[in-house]
Specification:
The complex is a heterodimer. By secondary structure, chain A is mainly α. Helix content of chain A is 70%, strand content 0%. Chain A has 14 helices and no strands. In chain A, α1 packs across α13, α4 crosses α10 and α8 packs antiparallel against α9. Chain B has a two-stranded antiparallel ribbon. Chain B folds into two domains: 65 residues; 250 residues, MetI-like (MetI-like fold, Orthogonal Bundle), CATH 1.10.3720.10. The chains are: A mainly alpha, B mainly alpha. Chains A and B meet through α1, α4, α5, α6 and α7 of A and α1, α3, α4, α5 and α7 of B.
């Protein structure tokens, strides 16, 4: 066998295997999107309907707009609820993420330049993330109810801030480590205060790293489920919780509407994720992998 | 804010410059850490103390105010440790985490190996392959229900391929449930192993591989004897982080099964959830949480020890890779 034949066979094998996995990845996504465009009689049809016929946007209208038909069916939902949940999710995720990244950047700078946390302490910080949150939720909810934080956006923001801090500190440290120190030393010789050096010299240099960290943590807070379920589910409803409320309704399974809501939750995240696709490995590995 | 700004020389104009600089740095360090210490003291510490309190005082929501709960010593821990359901939930969690970690890793590693050299369409495959990781877990769960229910499309496809009508009870048969949710976890998180391993492959030094090729080693031998040993720290990182995340998996199992059918998918998080929020045995839940926390601390400390060692290896590797780049 010649070398070019070998290469061709290798190439065929590669494309075959990759395409098999691509189908496995794409089919559930396709199913979610296509179900969201199916009229209700095709949600459970047997034999299965693979392509919506006819296509309809009625599920989206039912979920995301105030349509009259929704109120007249047996299954009554307030069509504004998804938007309220969307607003809650957006507000909570943005606030918690901003806090986490701002404070994370300060700690990361301190660790990178002044070793405010030793390496052991840095790894201990990871514990905040590595121990399953379920083990502290019950006492946390009692503590929150004593403080009046239960079922409030503030409570969720606080705990998201705390639990995403390890990610932002580690990820931002990996970016700040790459900035040469000479610039700061110059600033110090010129007599600039340390905080000003941080804000006006260092942070602008890691701007793209800050954006990547921000978007990465936004993904984590946007999709969080357990804490949102147990610390805030009646007054403050986030999108994942709103979606789970469609499950146990009297009308039974409403796949089309669930799918329409799912698409609404997923599209922003996929969009964000693709923007920072080069930094995802760094994020998920706490900055230990730097590309 | 302005009180913590330490301008060298302005704090104590009379003191020598070096002393004031050191003091300025010390203040700066404490200013950085103060909010973190406040967060630990104000949120984490009270929560851990409360949990300890409930582990030793019998209380459930039916029993009046929690601060009057009765001291029962180690009774609750005894109850938990003799509860076979608790033991099974630990075993299930470990099985789930191990199984899904290995699944994610093998597929992720394979994909990374196939994709670490440039080829046509690489970017497109990459984009498609990372999407599952960007899908909200709860969405994965409900989409899986649409796909896997008895008359769903997966069963339809199986029937068409097999020619006979099969209705595999993915979600209703206790023997299948844990495997089904494990497969979902693999679908959801293979991208994680994939991107980590892809980064690992791309930071491999070129020289040893080139040298081995010149010496006439086969691709197979280069893979086993050069690439794999060099990749060990990255492999370890991918496995550990995924395992720890899988131990905490809750949304998919809860949304699809609530621990059922029977108790087939009752992992640690699910059992703690049920005990605390459905049976309202807060004390039992707290004691279980404590034990699980201890178990996880042991696992995490072990992982951290190894991660610290591997991190130095990874740092050295990426530094070398960026020097040659």
């Amino acid at each position: 066998m010649t070398k070019s034949q070998k290469n061709r066979i290798g190439s065929i094998v590669r494309y075959t295997l990759l395409t098999i996995w691509a189908v496995i990845v794409a089919f559930p996504l396709y199913w979610m999107v296509s179900t969201s465009f199916k009229p209700s009689e095709q949600w459970f049809a047997w034999p299965t309907v693979y392509i919506p016929d006819p296509w309809t946007i009625v599920n989206y209208l039912d979920v995301w707009t105030d349509r009259q038909e929704v109120a007249t069916g047996q299954y009554i939902i307030s069509a504004q609820r998804p938007w309220i949940a969307f607003g809650n999710s957006l507000m909570i995720a943005l606030t918690a993420t901003t806090l986490s990244v701002v404070y994370g950047a300060v700690i990361a700078y301190g660790v990178s330049r002044y070793r405010v946390l030793s390496e052991v302490r840095m790894f201990q910080l990871l514990m905040l993330r590595m121990i399953p949150p379920i083990v502290i939720v019950a006492p946390l909810s009692l503590y929150y109810s004593a403080l009046g934080l239960l079922d409030t956006a503030t409570g969720l923001i606080l705990i998201y801030f705390l639990t995403t801090l390890p990610y932002s500190v580690w990820m931002l440290k990996s970016f700040i480590d790459e900035v040469p120190r000479e610039v700061e030393q110059a600033a110090e010789i010129l007599g600039a205060p340390r905080w000003r050096t941080l804000v006006e010299v260092v942070l602008p240099l890691v701007r793209s790293g800050i954006v990547a960290t921000f978007l990465f943590i936004l993904i984590l807070t946007w999709s969080e489920y357990l804490l949102a379920l147990l610390l805030a589910k009646t007054e403050v409803v986030t999108l994942p919780i709103e979606l789970s409320k469609y499950q146990g309704t009297t009308e039974g399974r409403v796949y089309g509407r669930q799918a329409a809501l799912s698409v609404g939750i997923t599209v922003p995240l996929v969009f964000i994720g693709l923007i920072i696709r080069k930094h995802l490995a760094r994020g998920f590995s706490f900055g230990m992998i730097r590309r | 804010m302005s009180s913590v700004v330490a301008v060298p020389g302005s704090v104590a104009p009379a003191a020598p410059r070096e002393v004031s600089r050191a003091r300025g740095i010390r203040r700066f360090k404490w200013a950085i850490l103060a909010p973190l210490i406040a967060l630990f003291a104000g949120v984490l510490l009270p929560v851990l103390l409360l949990q300890l309190y409930f582990s030793f005082h019998q209380w459930s929501v039916y029993l009046g105010s929690w601060w009057d709960a009765e001291w029962v010593g180690l009774d609750i821990f005894k109850e938990v440790l003799t509860d076979p359901r608790f033991g099974w939930s630990i075993i299930r969690s470990l099985a789930f985490a191990l199984g899904s970690t290995i699944g994610c890793f093998l597929i992720g590693f394979g994909l990374a190996y196939l994709m670490h050299k440039p080829f046509r369409g690489q970017a497109l495959y990459y984009i498609l392959f990372i999407i599952p990781m960007l899908t909200v877990p709860i969405v994965v769960a409900y989409t899986a229900e649409m796909l896997l229910y008895d008359a769903g499309p997966i069963n339809d496809i199986i029937s068409r391929i097999g020619g006979v009508e099969h209705k595999v009870p993915f979600l209703t048969n206790p023997d299948f449930a844990l495997t089904s949710v494990m497969l979902l976890e693999v679908w959801n998180w293979t991208p994680f192993s994939f991107i980590i391993m892809l980064a690992g492959f791309s930071s491999l030094p070129k020289e040893p591989i080139e040298a081995a090729r010149i010496l006439g080693a086969s691709t197979w031998r280069i893979f086993w004897e050069v690439q794999l040993p060099l990749l060990r720290p990255v492999i370890f990182l991918a496995l550990t982080l995924r395992f720890l995340e899988a131990m905490a998996e809750f949304p998919k199992i809860w949304a699809l099964f609530q621990g059922g059918p029977g108790s087939a998918t009752e992992t640690i998080p699910v059992y703690i959830f049920l005990t605390t929020w459905q049976y309202f045995e807060v004390s039992k839940g707290a004691a279980m949480s404590y034990l699980v926390m201890m178990l996880m601390i042991v696992i995490v400390l072990l992982a951290i020890r190894l991660l610290r060692r591997e991190k130095h290896a990874i740092d050295a590797m990426t530094a070398a890779a960026s020097r040659t780049a």
